[in-house]
Amino acid sequence: MSHAHQHPPLSPLADPVSLARLQILLVPVHPAASRLSDSLYAYWSSLIRRHAVVRGDEILKAPPTSSSSHRRGPTSSDTRDRFLPSSSGASISRAASALSVHLAFPQHPPAPHVYPLSLVRLSAFPLVVIGVAVGEPAGFAVDEDAEPAAAAGTEDAHGAFEHTITQLFPASSPFPLVRRLVLVPPTVPQGTPRHSSPSKASRHGTPKLGGADTGIVRYAPADGGDAWVARLLGEVVGDVCAELGVLASTLETPAGLKTLSGTLLPSLSSALPDANGVLSPSGTPTADGRHSGTPTALGGISLARALTPGGRPTSVQAPSAPPIQTTAIASPPTAIPASTSLSANPFRRSSALTSPFSRTSSTTSVGASSTASLPANAPKYTSAPLAGIAGGRLMKLLGDMYLLTGMHADAIRCYDDGAEKCRAVGDVFWEALAREGRAVAGIGEAWEGRDGSNHAIPFPSAPIPVEILSHYLSALACIARSPLPFPPTILSPAPQSAAASFNLSAPSLPHANTGTGEGLLAYLYTTLCLRIAHFNLLVWAAGGWGSIALSALMSHSLPRAFPSSPDTADPAVRRERKRILNGLAARSQIPRASVLGHAEAGIGPHIRAMSRPEQLAAHVEYVWLSRWLGLERKEAAGARAVVKRIAGLIVDGRQEGRRLSVRPRESIAGVDGEVGLGLGIAIPTATQVGVRRKEATDGNDAVVGLLERAAEVLGVDLVDMDAAAQHRGEPGRFGWPELQVEAMKEAIAVAEALPDHLAVVRLCISTLRALYPYLNQTSQAHLSKMYPQSLAIARRRGLDISVPWWLPGKVVLSVEIAALPQNRVPTAHTRAEIVPGRKNPFLYNPRLRAEAGKTVLVANEQVDVYVTIQNPFAFDLDVKDLSLITSGVSVVTTPLSIILPASSVQTVRVSGQASSAGTLQIKGAALRLADGSHAEVLLPVYDAVMADKRDKRRSKALADAGKVKRQGLDARRKDADEDGAATVESWLTAEVVEEMPLLWIKTTSLSHGTVMLYDGERSTIRITLENSSPVRVDFVKLSFDDSTARDAQAALDADPSPEQAHEIDYDLLRRPVFSWDTEGRPVPTELAVPAGGRVTLAVNCLGKVGCTDGSIRIDYGRVAGASKFHTRTITLPILFTVYHTLQVSGLGLSRLLPPATGVAAERPDASDALHAALGKAGKADALVAVNVRNLYGLPFQVTLRRKGDTADSGTAVERLVPPGATERYVPCAPAGMPVQTLAHHSIVVPVSRVRLGAEHVGRPVPALSDRQYVVDTRAAPDVARARETYWYREALLAQLESTWTEPGSLRAGSLSLRTVPLGQDGLDVFKLEGVEVELVLDTQAAVRASEFVQVRAAVTNRLEHAVRPVVRIEALPAAPPAPPANRRHSVAPPAPAPPRSALFDGTASARLGVLAPGASVAHAVGALFLATGEYRLRAVVDAGENDGPRFSDVLVVRVE
Question: Which of 8, 257, 1131, 1454 lies 20 to 30 Å from 991, alpha-carbon distance?
Answer without folding.
Answer: 1131
